[in-house]
Design goal:
- The structure holds 2 protein chains of 2 kinds.
- Helix content of chain A is 57%, strand content 10%.
- Chain A has a 4-stranded parallel sheet with strand order 5-4-6-7, sandwiched between helices. A 3-stranded parallel sheet of chain A has the order 1-2-3, sandwiched between helices.
- Chain B folds into 2 domains: 153 residues, 3-Layer(aba) Sandwich (Rossmann fold); 138 residues, Rossmann fold (3-Layer(aba) Sandwich).
- The relative contact order of chain B is 0.11.
- The chains are: A alpha/beta, B alpha/beta.
- At the A-B interface, helix 4 and helix 14 of A face helix 4, helix 5 and helix 13 of B.
- The structure holds iron/sulfur cluster (2 copies).
- One iron/sulfur cluster binds next to helix 14 of chain A.
């Protein structure tokens, strides 16, 4: 049986590792993207490829060096480059001497037969469909807890009394979830993890700003690719709400359109009436919604040369003016540095603070008079 | 008063202008274009468009700015799909939105959607909608549509006969007879592959095609090849989603396989998303056909004339040397 690997997106690898093991495969866990990953990515991926393609390229090279022979990935439903990544990666890997194969999963609702065929190929232990379904359900539960815990850190971090406490606890509780295996273990570990994060000592009085994060899925989900922007913001006293999580996304693409997505589309409709691929339309829609919900600002994260996000950014200028909400965009590439990003974030936070206190002063005046 | 509709001379211009112009003039509507790209026009676009956008989009902004005060409407249809298979780059899908929300002082935009995956008559319905905007009757619109369709067909056949879009447009405009081409007279033939709005824009391509012709090289572009024929040469498991990218790549696969050209040049724009993949795939394909030299030329808003000329000359020299070497080993 070939050794299996898959792309890394945040902490989701813990779920995929479990799932692949359950199906009877040996797994090469993709390492957290680092300097070496980027070096490989830059060396072997096309020069103007978007960052996710480069990082994944590098990750694959790293896992191939560790003996991975089969890569499992998803095709992406949007008509964007991501949908073609798989075969390009395979061609490049083969051309540099790694005889790997790639299994690309397309959305099951459009290609049900193809989906089952691919599942079968991975099913080394010859589990029944029923048993596989059980595995998927457990995996899903784990994924949900991973997402929930991460979401909670976004709320707690800006209020923590001791800088860095949330991250420290977060690192620890991830391991609890990681080793949980049965359904009840996962639930128990997940609840305990949530509780542990909640108990990080906090300043309930602190005035925090709220920022929504929109943009392209990969750089949103993999903190190493966005230089841990959410953590940086948390430390600057900003609560972030990320518009996309793997559990949210997979649900939209596998089961049915959730009501949330629909309203995102509605919100985007006056500006951009059809899906242009990737997540361009969602970025616009979420920005409108964040503005309506009274957020202090929006940050858009996009890989450099990202096609749909460039369209979105052009339109966000108008959205920002009409809805009076500041929008900051980072086009990320392998040269983006953390220091530069932090400086820009600090300036943005200042701007939001000033705007908020001005608005506050305006509201306060009539009461004084 | 006659309504005036502005059609920017960029992007779809090189593919659909003859059809669009015929349609509008048959309806008695005046068509105004922004004309050839100039330095000033490009500079305006670069100033107004997002810095991270690709050069062709910046250029399109420039063309729109040049037109916006001269016309009553801007014609920027939302072209999604025209062959029932592939769609256009996301920037095309969001083009009317980018212009509407990214520029100020824009006249009303006619952004009727064109997507023929919605049924065989959907294209006609799109044109019907356009005609209705000007209050024309259904019969009149139908006549204009049919006439436009005939012109599009003729344009297509001129291209397949070996003409480049600007030449074919000139022939359509001036009438006149077409002399058969394809007589490459034993000289060298290069393929210049790339999007029509790059390859055929004299300014942005730094006159690459013209330069080659001056050096005595005949040039074929992807418009000269039948889309159906070249599609069969594609070896990918999953084809490119985007029409122009798919065409360019198919053309490369086809020409490499058939070996009918002496060299292949891929012209690509800085900041183009799809091209990062197209270019890599072409490069990988070229490795399998070492007998046909391949070169990729990236253009951006600062590309200098001299740099491109030097590269072309070097490439040409290389091709010639290779040819001579091959002929030298030929047992005569
Ligand atoms: S959405 Fe952006 S980052 Fe993703 S594949 Fe498309 S261009 Fe690349
Ligand atoms: S295909 Fe490339 S050059 Fe053309 S609009 Fe899209 S990104 Fe720009």
């Amino acid at each position: 049986m070939p050794k299996v690997t898959f792309p890394r997106m945040g902490e989701s690898w813990r779920t995929f590792k479990m799932l692949m093991n359950d199906l009877g495969n040996e797994v090469v866990v993709p390492p957290r993207p680092n300097k070496r990953t980027l070096d490989y990515g830059v060396r072997y991926a096309p020069e103007f490829a978007c960052l996710p393609l480069k990082i994944l390229m590098g990750t694959y090279v790293e896992t191939c060096l560790e003996g991975a022979e089969l890569i499992v990935t998803s095709g992406g439903s949007g008509p964007c480059r991501a949908g073609l990544y798989g075969q390009l990666h395979k061609k490049i890997l083969n051309s540099i001497g790694f005889p790997v194969d790639i299994i690309v999963f397309e959305a099951p609702k459009n290609h049900p037969i193809d989906f089952l065929r691919k599942v079968n190929r991975l099913n080394a232990s010859r589990l029944s469909y029923r048993a596989i379904w059980e595995c998927i359900k457990r995996g899903w539960e784990k994924l949900k807890y991973l997402d929930d815990v991460e979401k909670l850190t976004h709320v707690v971090r800006p209020r923590e009394l001791e800088k860095g406490a949330t991250t420290r606890v977060y690192r620890r509780v991830l391991e609890w979830i990681d080793i949980a295996y049965t359904m009840s273990e996962i639930k128990e570990a997940g609840e305990a993890a949530l509780q542990a994060i909640r108990s990080v000592p906090q300043d309930a009085e602190r005035k925090v700003l709220k920022v929504g994060i929109v943009g392209e899925i990969y750089v949103l989900l993999e903190p190493a690719s966005n230089l841990e922007i959410e953590e940086t913001l948390g430390i600057l006293g900003v609560e972030v709400h990320r518009s996309m999580f793997l559990t949210g996304w997979t649900q939209d693409n596998t089961v049915k359109e959730t009501s949330e997505t629909l309203s995102v589309k509605d919100a985007a409709a006056p500006y951009i009436p059809l899906c242009i691929g990737g997540h361009g339309q969602e970025s616009v829609g979420h920005t409108v919604l964040y503005a309506k919900e009274g957020y202090d600002g929006v940050i858009q994260l996009a890989p450099f040369t990202c096609i749909p996000e460039i369209v979105a950014r052009t339109i966000l200028n108008r959205v920002s003016r009409v809805h009076n909400i500041p929008v900051l965009t980072f086009f990320l590439d392998e040269q983006t540095g953390k220091a530069g990003m932090t400086t820009r974030l600090e300036a943005f936070v200042d701007l939001m603070r000033r705007k908020k206190s001005q608005a506050g002063a305006l509201h306060a005046r009539p009461e004084v008079v | 008063m006659i309504a005036r509709v502005g059609i920017p001379s960029s992007l779809f211009y090189y593919v659909h202008f003859p059809m669009w112009q015929t349609f509008f003039s048959e309806l008695g509507i005046e068509v105004v274009t922004s004309g050839q790209t100039t330095k000033g026009l490009l500079d305006e676009g670069v100033k107004e468009a997002l810095a991270d956008a690709c050069v062709p989009i910046k250029l399109f902004f420039g063309h729109v700015i040049a037109l916006k005060d001269k016309v009553d409407y801007l014609f920027i249809p939302r072209v999604v799909c025209l062959n029932r298979k592939t769609i256009y780059c996301p920037k095309f899908l969001g083009l009317p939105d980018m212009i509407r929300h990214g520029l100020s002082g824009i006249p009303p935009i006619i952004d009727v959607q064109m997507d023929n995956r919605e049924g065989w008559a959907s294209l006609w319905r799109s044109y019907l909608k356009i005609g209705r905007i000007f209050g024309k009757g259904k019969m009149k619109i139908l006549m204009a549509y049919l006439k436009a369709w005939a012109v599009a067909k003729r344009f297509q056949s001129l291209l397949l006969a070996g003409m480049h879009p600007p030449e074919a447009m000139a022939v359509l405009k001036e009438g006149g007879r077409v002399q058969p081409r394809h007589d490459h007279k034993g000289g060298l033939v290069f393929a210049v592959l790339g999007y029509p709005y790059e390859v055929h824009d004299q300014f942005i391509s730094v006159g690459l095609v013209k330069k080659l012709k001056k050096m005595g090289v005949s040039v074929i572009t992807m418009e000269n090849l039948s889309p159906k024929k070249i599609a069969r040469a594609n070896i990918l498991e999953k084809k490119m989603f985007w029409t122009f990218s798919d065409l360019a790549l198919n053309a490369a696969y086809y020409l490499f396989r058939e070996g009918k050209v002496d060299g292949i040049i891929h012209l690509t724009a800085f900041g183009c998303g799809p091209d990062s993949m197209v270019d890599k795939l072409m490069e990988l394909a070229s490795k399998e056909y070492p007998e046909i030299p391949y070169m990729s030329v990236t253009i951006d808003e600062h590309t200098g004339d001299a740099g491109v000329s030097t590269r072309l000359e070097a490439f040409l020299d290389m091709v010639k040397r290779k040819k001579e070497a091959q002929q030298g080993t030929c047992p005569r």
